[in-house]
User: What shape does this take?
Amino acid sequence: MKPESLMILYEDDSVEVHYIDGSRLLLSPCGSEFLFERALPVSAHPLQPAERIRQRTQFVISTYREQLLRALDFRNQFCTSLYLPSSIIPSERKNILLSDISEINWPSPNATAAAECMDNGSVKISSLDGHACLCMSELQQEFTVQFLCKESQKCAASSSFSEKNSNNENKGQHGKSSQSFISEMFPKQMRMENKKEEHCWTINKYRELDKSKDYLNQIKGQDEAPLSLTCCSSEYMWVMQRWSVSSYPEEWKYPLSLALMFYQLHTDNVHKTYVENKCTRNRTAGSGVLKQSEKTKAVSHLPRALPLSCSAPHLHRWSFCDFFLQRKQDSEHNSHPLLIKIVWCQGIVYRLIHDIENFIEIYPGDGSVFKSEGAFLGNYFTHYSVHKETRQREENMYSANSLPPDTPGSPYSICSIITQATRILQYCYKTKLSLTHNYSICCWRMIPGTDGREMLPVPLHETVIPNVGRLVAYSDNKVHALFCDGMTLNMVWDFSSCCGRTQINQGATTGWCKIICPDGAQQLIQINHPGLYERYIGTVVAWCRSLNDNEGKTLPATEKN
Assistant: This one.
């Protein structure tokens, strides 16, 4: 089996894996299906198609099991929608629990043992119930979380059908229902919660049965094991995820704030200033230090895994992105461009943050972090590291246009990783400014019973300027302008701002726009430095600002001047 040379996680949580021998694997956004493409032999004809095998993840054969499991682990490490098929996950990762875990209880900010300082300088926050923990690195740029997550389940109809069958089997084998058996075992602990699922309510209610895993293992070997306990038990897996301090899910807001508060109280002024600046820069939900009203929210919900089967398998994309291939090829020809979230290449992790400030974080594997600065394709990168002896924080800035030569004996090349990061960032800018990726409907984000139209952007404002062109603003903050001379301009603009509010680039969320000439040539242009395209960019920017100025007023969906 050949090792991986490249792994990519896209914004819809699909995964693309490239192997050293030229083989490739593509995992669907929901994780329920995969496609494996074998590498062509050297003697193959140029027109010979590659052999492709497509299977469902939970029924994978042993030939692709290990590759698929590593691709799935990479997906679950950075994705927002977990997929945990019990059939392929090793037994040593599983935990059988007799109660349904849905919430995590965290310590209060005033607790003396709320945070634990590790030997490597990181801070660990553990939940009171032992179901999750958060560990933030000494640089305070990234944190990891470990938590118990329930395995992926079948759909509701299938689950209820199987429960009824198992209940009937229990009655037939033991001569009496599962409820009566449990009643004999625990006559004083009976409390009814759900009359429709009488064989499960007792086990799910009591926390002490959660700690009786040894008892469950003992009764499994008995001839007359209480099948009600085994059918009501659930398999949980320990999941480890990595998140950036600048972008993370809402459920980790509270423990992350505890870790930041610990750094503020136990580190020097340099660290304090840095943490405060980092909190103010967070743009996603859940950022910032704990407010007074949030200090009591010490309970967060555990993430849930996606179902085993996908409800919209016809939306799965089975085309590979050739952007990372060595041969020269224009990425714009990709029929399904998607934004990239994570790239793993030879042990180096590139994390893309697509927000108002688009930037990239690089983790070379030695504990340090490179981070792009500014909104212009990462012209500058700041290297955050900690001195091994003094444990002092160090920061060095590099210019992408003047990178240092490689140092002999260095574990990685600063020039290579920054060049690759700039290339990835430029690809994401082009993809973000393209209108085609707006129509990539994600299967697991669809609302059941709909055709996915609610996920598509809709035009909000349209203006036709005589002898100039047609300008359209969409609900996903995309702006598309078609001029009379054949020029086309795509831009991303923040229409949620109020009049007079200070913004980055006065509303432009990327600082760039894409110009498409009549002959098909495309190029990125800085909005603040339009050059020869000042007439086109100025027209679109003025129109977008007029929409921001009119916010709050009643605007027609279509305006024709």
In short: Residues 458-560 form a domain with the Arylsulfatase, C-terminal domain fold (CATH 3.30.1120.30).
